[in-house]
Amino acid sequence: MVKVSVIIPIYNVEKYLKRCLQSVVRQTYVDYEVICVNDCSPDNSQFIIDEYEKRYPQLVKSYINEENLGLGKTREVGINNSNGQYLMFIDSDDYIAPDYIETYYNAMQKGKYDVVIGGYTRDLEGKLKKHFAKHSIWSLATYPIACAKMYRKEFLLKNQVKFSTIRCGEDIYFSMALYCANPQYKVIDYCGYHYYYNRESITGSMNYEKNHEKFIVSIFNEFMENYDIYNLKIKDRKVIEYVYIANMVNALITYGHGGGKKRMKEKYEYWLNDMKNRFPEYKDNPYVGIMKPKGQTLKIKLGVGIIMKLEKIHCAKLLLYILALK
Fold first, then answer.
1. Is the pTM of this model over 0.70?
2. Which of 169, 204, 239 is the last residue of a domain?
């Protein structure tokens, strides 16, 4: 049995797939397998997968979904066909450093960890920028990236940590499920995962969604159907509440910016109504503040802190309307 299973969901990425696979098969670590799952890709991705499977028959395995399942459920197909003790996810338009698997595996062996969390390097048309993960619980809760991590497979299966059926923001659901399972985790100062921005990919498609706030609501609807958050400790329940607020604020600012006052008004009212119904005590969240919570990224602290501070005096919509100006 291999130690590590690297799972790669594939859809419409023939332009980038060779770079991804080449980086994965050229690792300093040797005891691993590569599981490629084709999610009914309409391009020539399968020909590339077949090529690597023939060249590396002991390393690369491929599967083809009978129907298009989306990113999250395609990853689960990979999990169900994996043999490794540990799991890693790589998106097929991204790539990894040669010491990637070895670095995570060595970190995992230094304690009884269920997940090891690293940062990533953003590749924006060849311009590289490192983003280090924070050494705090927020790297579990509000760092919704399934990649750039190593998981103990037994822990995920035992706690039924799964992906959402919603085809946008699956990693948000997965990260909350992981947090609620209370894993032993370690954060490492390493950015060997190279995230390449690609609007045509499974993950990149969400960047152009005009109603991202509605996807957030759908994700939380599904999550709260499967997890009774009111059975959680108050601290953990407030963390989930904060995750909701942070993602909604991000949706309003990022996807409503420059969209016009009318559209922002619709988004804002939709969010406010849902938040009041879902989390009626949201104004008392102890993690919300201009420089709160400790260990959170500055961008999220400021975004959430300022909007929620203004919301208490009914002025948040004014700032959002200004941001929405074309």
1. yes
2. 204
